[in-house]
Request: fold
Amino acid sequence: MILAVSIGAGLLVAALLFRVFFDDWGGFWECVRYYLTPDVISLFRGEWGADQWATMKLGIYTALSVGSGYLAFVKLHQLFG
Reply:
């Protein structure tokens, strides 16, 4: 039960932060595309700065979402475990 609640908390934080980090699904998939593109390719295309920014946004968004779920799990386990 604690695991399900903590996963729900992580998903809720992810949903609430989505509009803060990305304008729409297109912006999200653009960040994923930059994340999967090697930096050398972005450098030769002249998109290195955009690549770094998109990768950082995706990393922070993922860390906050997963981190909030993990924090909820730890704290709920301390209270009710």
